[in-house]
Amino acid sequence: METQTRRLTRKGQETRARIVAAAAQLMYERGLTEATLEDVRAAAGVSGSQVYHYFADKQALLLAVIEHQTQAVLEMQQPHFAALDTMAGLRQWRDAMVEYQLRLQCRGGCPIGSLGSEVAENNPEARLAVASGFLRWESAIRGGLQTMHARGELDTDPEDLALATLAALQGGLLLTQLQRRVKPLEVALDAMLDLIQTHTTTP
Amino acid sequence: METQTRRLTRKGQETRARIVAAAAQLMYERGLTEATLEDVRAAAGVSGSQVYHYFADKQALLLAVIEHQTQAVLEMQQPHFAALDTMAGLRQWRDAMVEYQLRLQCRGGCPIGSLGSEVAENNPEARLAVASGFLRWESAIRGGLQTMHARGELDTDPEDLALATLAALQGGLLLTQLQRRVKPLEVALDAMLDLIQTHTTTP
C-alpha cells in the first residue's frame, strides 16, 4: 500500500485520500458492512473505475481506512501526548477527550475501537491492523508515564498503567456512545487519573 | 416480546430458545450483519416459517439475542456479584473474568459490548437495549461497592467506581480480543482493584 501511494501523482494521491476519507466517514456513521463500495464511490464523487484503480477490493480500502483513522486519532491528541508526564497534562488530555465527545454529542465512539470490534472475529488482517494502531496509541500514552517514572515521580509500572489507561478510555468511549452521555468516559478516565495520582509524588 | 413468550407452549418456548441461542452464537462468531436469518434457521435446525412464527423480522430476533446475551453474561458472574463487597471477592471476580477469556483463547470479546458497538450508530432501539443490559451489569457491580461504602470501608463514590470498573472491563475485553492475549484485561481490572484498595480501610 505504501509503495503504491508513493508512486501516485499528486492528483492521484488527492483522489485516493478523498476516497479513504469518504469510506472512513461512511464506515464510522453506518458501520463497516453497511458502507458499500458504491456508497463510498458516490460520497467521494469519483467513478467506480477510479475506486478500483486505487483499491483492489473492499479489504484494501478497509486497511487504508484503519490507517487513516489511527493517524486521525493520534494527530488529534498529539498536542497533549508530550504533556502526559505531569498530572496537569494528564488532566488536560482527559478534558480534551471528554470535550471532543461532547462536541460529537457522544456519537460514534472510538473510530478505531468500533472498527476493531467489527473485524475482530471475521478478518484477521484487519484485526491485526487495528491492534497495531492501538499499540501506537498505547505507546504515546506510555511515553509521559515513563518520563514520570524515570524522574522518580511514579512508583508503579508505567507500561501496565498506559495499557490500563487505554483500556479505560476504550471502555469509557463505548459506554458513552451507548448511553449518549459523557459520564462513563469521565469516570473511567478520572479513575485512572486518581490511580496515577496515588502513585505519584508530585501534585 | 415478553407477552408473546408467555403465550407459547413449552415446546414453543424451547424452539424459540433454540433459535435465539443459534442466532446469538452466529452473531457472536461472525458479527451481526454476517449472520443471516437463513444461517440462523439452518443452525437452529428449524424451518423458515418457524423462525418467522417467533420473530417478525431480524430486528425482533436481534432484540431477543441482546436479552439472551445479557442474561448469559450476568448469570455467569452471578456467583461472584454477592462477594464484591470485599477485596478478596473483587479479586476472585477479576480472576474469573480473566480465566474465562483464557478458556475462549481471547476470542469474541464481550458478547454485549460487541453487539453494542455494531448497533450504536444505526439501530437506536437495539442501542437502548444494549445500554439497558449494561445498566443491569453496572448495578450488579455497584451493589458490593455500595455495601463496602455503607460499612464505612470505602471512602469514595461507589456509583462512579462501579461505572469506571465496568468501563475498564469493557476496554480490557476489547483490547484482549484484538490482541488475542489476556494482558490488557488483567491490567485494566488490576488498575481498578488497585484504586479500590487505596480507597478502602480493610485488606
TrEMBL record, chains A, B:
Keywords recorded for this protein, A-Z: DNA-binding, Transcription, Transcription regulation
Binding region for DNA: 36-55
Gene3D superfamilies xrefs: Tetracycline Repressor, domain 2
Keyword flag DNA-binding: yes
Top-rank taxon, per record: Bacteria
Stretches assigned to coiled coil: none
HTH tetR-type domain: residues covered: 13-73
Protein name, entry field: TetR/AcrR family transcriptional regulator
Source organism of the structure: Streptacidiphilus alkalitolerans
